[in-house]
Amino acid sequence: MEGKPVLHYFKARGRMESIRWFLAAAGVEFEEKFIETAEDLNKLKNDGSLMFKQVPMVEIDGMKLVQTRAILNYLSTKYNLYGKDTKERVLIDMYTEGVADVNEMMIRLPVCPRDQKEATIAKIKEKTTVHFLPAFEKVLSHGQDYLLGSKLCRADIHLVEILHYVEELDPSLLANYPLLRALKARVSNLPGLKKFLQPGGQRQPPTDEKMLEEARKVFKF
Amino acid sequence: MMASKPKLHYPNGRGRMESVRWVLAAAGVEFDEDFLETKEQLQKLQDGNHLLFQQVPMVEIDGMKLVQTRSILHYIADKHHLFGKDLKERTLIDMYVEGTLDLLELIIMHPFLKPDDQQKEVVIMAQKAIIRYFPVFEKVLRGHGQRFLVGNQLSLADIILLQTILALEEKIPNILSAFPHLQGTKNATGCLPHIAEEDSFVNRSENVQGSCILICNLYLNTLLFE
């Protein structure tokens, strides 16, 4: 039976947000079961739903998928956003992993100790400006609409998500990257993403102190 | 035109390249290594635009310069039929590999911790392995009674698991004592011809990590950490 995917996670960005972005961009409606108490999480852990007793977990096609990358790899294949052959797929993989490196830093930033926050932000800015943004701007110098050319793929979605976070951190970081800004505008305007990003859409806001407090109660960190 | 061997660019140490060496070895693919021993060598790779994100690992293979460990592993696994027979098997393998890589990450980072933290971290690794990861794989193997994790044939999941088990055993020799099926799969995978030959890298001692750390301290900590 083809039901909607069901996402199990805390009501926050964390490691589920890139999955939400992807489904929205792919035009796939999804449901969310938010973990709000320690009991919610324990229930999932104890009923065998979580392979490594961790979330994110996505119920789809009769499976309970875990591990963000495994989930995204499955979804990308299912919704035809993973390139047409091995050569395209390996390119997409490299771009996706490059984005994931920056995303990892963004995910950890809210839980970074207060006295290390400034140094961490400086590190993120350094990594994006030295390694990351120039590489992708260069890829787009082929003059076509998307990373691989004329067709959207998962890497465009992941990249644009991160460009939003980079801009949230410091809008001036994107100043020298016109092609990336154009990609960001183009992809953000896809019907599914447009709706996702509007008020009332399923996108989660930046993680603030209050959300962290709630999360500490559930995840005990 | 004869296909040339893949060429690996990385310092002479395990780090993030070790999984790639394992998978190539398991697939029976001979490879060359260009060990990065000086700052200038890395600079040369960066200046020559050989590194997409200015980082290693990098593997020259089939006319491409692949970076990012998982991309490299997936490419090799696909090419050498180590990724299952269909999407369902592939996804299972993916989940198992990703879980194992989470555990392996602790091992990769271990040499770079302060000496005081290293012993504590060994305890954490052992706990995670025994409580979170090993029971999952033990149950899978017990469930179907086969030697390999998925589809009754060797896959990326078995190779990465073997690499991780052996690395953990170096620090915690009896770590598999409660997991008979894992011991079985360790022996099955470890006896595969290409791995059992154990030419250069499998027996590389941890002491090589010393030279690795020196190089890292000389310049970027992004050298080993993507």
TrEMBL record, chain A:
Family statement drawn from the similarity comment of this UniProt entry: Belongs to the GST superfamily. Alpha family.
Keyword terms of this UniProt record: Transferase
Entry GO CC: cytosol; extracellular exosome
InterPro entries: Glutathione-S-Trfase_C-like, Glutathione-S-Trfase_C_sf, Glutathione_S-Trfase, Glutathione_S-Trfase_N, GST_alpha, GST_C, GST_superfamily, Thioredoxin-like_sf
Segments forming domain GST N-terminal: 3-83
Gene Ontology molecular-function annotations: glutathione transferase activity
The protein's enzyme class: transferase
The protein, known as: glutathione transferase
Species classification: Eukaryota, Metazoa, Chordata, Craniata, Vertebrata
EC number: 2.5.1.18
Swiss-Prot/TrEMBL GO biological process terms: glutathione metabolic process; xenobiotic metabolic process
Span of domain GST C-terminal: 85-207
From TrEMBL, chain B:
Positions of the GST N-terminal domain: 4-84
Lineage of producing organism: Eukaryota, Metazoa, Chordata, Craniata, Vertebrata
Key word Transferase present: yes
Top-rank lineage group of the source organism: Eukaryota
Enzyme class: transferase
Protein name: glutathione transferase
GO biological process: glutathione metabolic process; xenobiotic metabolic process
InterPro entries given in the database record: Glutathione-S-Trfase_C-like, Glutathione-S-Trfase_C_sf, Glutathione_S-Trfase, Glutathione_S-Trfase_N, GST_alpha, GST_C, GST_superfamily, Thioredoxin-like_sf
Alphabetical UniProt keywords: Transferase
Gene: GSTA4
Residue intervals of the GST C-terminal domain: 86-211
MF term (GO), any: protein homodimerization activity
